[in-house]
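dude i think i finally got it to work??
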Amino acid sequence: MADLNAIAESLMKGQAPKVKELVQAAVDEGISPQQILTEGLIAGMNVLGKKFKANEVYIPEVLIAARAMHAGMGILKPLLAKSGAKAAKVFMIGTVKGDLHDIGKNLVAMMMEGAGFDVADIGIDVTSEKFVEMVREKKPEVLGMSALLTTTMPAMKSAVEAIKAAGLKDSVKIVIGGAPITQSFADEIGADGYAPDAASAVDVSKKLLGMQ
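look at this
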């Protein structure tokens, strides 16, 4: 019997080839792709997320683990699509207009993917119009916005207002984060949630969607 714990362990150590090999072995044994995803890959990323939050591991470890997760997902994605597995919730993320920082955004994207979300990363320097357009197109359940500079915080407010003006606010939860961002700023601009770090973004999103 393939050991799904071993997949989680190898993922946490960032051993991409090993993860790929173990996922393939589990598939060959007839374990469902959904089970391999949940009890292997997501389980590993969840543990890592908690450690990251507690400062027991750092950004490089998370990045290497995410690479290992992608190796496993490469095998599972087509199988999940074929098995008609329930579509994952969509999490869309972008850094607001005027801000070119993407490390935090990329970390959040990886953590969300590790938690089983279907992630749509729309990049950096995203205008309010683009946020509106992409919310219409991708129909995310959660939209993450990142700002690393105090000077780009107003762009966050504009983006939230544009989404409201377009009549889309009821269809999506907005979570914001980044170095200068606070809970009170999130309340002030009408965002649904604030995440102080990448691991918290997962918890906040799940809570907003009633998943935990």
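The radius of gyration is 18 Å.
im so relieved honestly
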